[in-house]
Amino acid sequence: MKTWLTYLAAAAMGLAFELVLKDTAGFVPFITFMSEIVMKLGVFIVFPLVFVSMMSGTASLTRKSGRTGFTWLSTIFWALFTSAAFACIGVLVFRIFPAAFPMTSTVPESAEQAAVIYQELSATTMQRLQNANPLSINAFVNLIRSSDCLLPVLFAALVFGYAIRPTSEVIRPAYITINSLSEVMFRLARQVAKLLWIAIFFISGTWYDKLWTDGTIFESWRFVVMFVIAGFGTLLILLPLIYAIATGFKRNPYRQIIRLLSAGCAAFFSTNYLFSQTPLYTDCRINLGIQKSVVSTTLPIHSIITKGGSAMVSTLCTCSLVYALNGSMPNVVQTFTIAIACTLASFLCCLHAGGEVVFASAFALGLLKVNVSGAEFAIIGLLPLLNGVATMFDIFLAGLGCSFTATNLKADCYIRNRDNV
After folding, report:
1. Domain for residue 197, yes or no?
2. Cα–Cα distance measured from residue 377 to residue 141, given in angstroms and rounded to the nearest whole number
């Protein structure tokens, strides 16, 4: 059975169990406990996978002149352009269909409480920036330096990958060994991706329970409608259009998006980009038919800087928060200023896996010196939905960005048995 179908079926089963058993004693603690365990199991092989495959991919790309430079430039261009475009679509939807953000009990009760939360957020950000610092005294420390950011592992893999490029017969055995080990990691990722439907079942149950228990989603139907319009408009129009133009209409964008559904489903319910890396590697390698060297090199970079979904959702939320507090629509200049600030904040979102939207909104408001008395933390009530959609679009952009680079490098390969209908 296709992986994306099993993921969607598992999510449907999670909803059914939540509706039937949510009032049963012990059900919510059990499914919450299990979701924490399976979330860790889903991330278990991500860091070794990124380290080994990035090292092999870097060594492979440097064998041909110009491929490494184009890969990096195209990846950075894709990240910058899509982040700006997605933030602009957030502004456009808000201007056409404005809605105030629903305020709930998650808003701090006083300015002092909001200040404490800001201090904790700033301290956490600085600590994670320190952990994500790729320059360590001992290179092996990079492999364990951070548990929620790929930057230290990425830097170490780049250094070792450049060193083992096969420029002489003496080094060639080392290159062959790392390349073979990379194949092993891709095989392991494929096997893990097949089993992640079990994790999706428990995680989706927790996802539904959080939304239902908080109740924020039922407070403002207009905001939900605005959010749905932005989501479907981006998924069905903007994202395919950007990809089609970037690839010169050589690929069907809707078919490519369908082939990334398993990774998108994992990202939506887990709200964690690290959890969805394993199915994303598998989807890009098998479903999109991209050469291993390109997948291994571009996906870790995209996971760090390609955050168009986070930029769009945080722009929508921040504009809606300002609208709710002021009681009047922010003008065009204000909304685009918010979009720019959210876009800049999105490039640091890799430090806050699972809380990108809250971080980007708080960071943008702080950058613009807009005092909303901690009201941005009302986002926490809708975080499963908001961050799920943001992470899903980030994953789609990462996969399509990898395909964009491969298409222009002519690094596609034919796969006989793709994992899609």
Report:
1. no
2. 34
CATH code for the domain of 54: 1.10.3860.10
Q: Say if residue 59 is exposed, middle or buried (CB neighbours under 10 Å; 0-12, 13-18, 19+).
A: buried
Q: What is the pLDDT of residues 89-133, one digit of tens each?
A: 999 999 999 988 887 645 544 445 445 455 555 555 556 556 666
Q: Is the dihedral of CA 158, 162, 165, 169 positive or negative?
A: negative
286 domain-assigned: yes
pLDDT at 65: 64
In degrees to the nearest 10, what's the CA dihedral of 325, 326, 331, 334?
A: -50
Domain assignment present for residue 419? The answer is no
- Token pair 């002489």 is at which residue? 168
**pLDDT: is 192 or 352 the higher one?**
192
Residue 76 sits in which domain range?
Answer: 42-189+214-409
Q: What is the CA radius of gyration of the chain?
A: 21
Helices (H), 138-237: 151-163, 172-214, 221-233
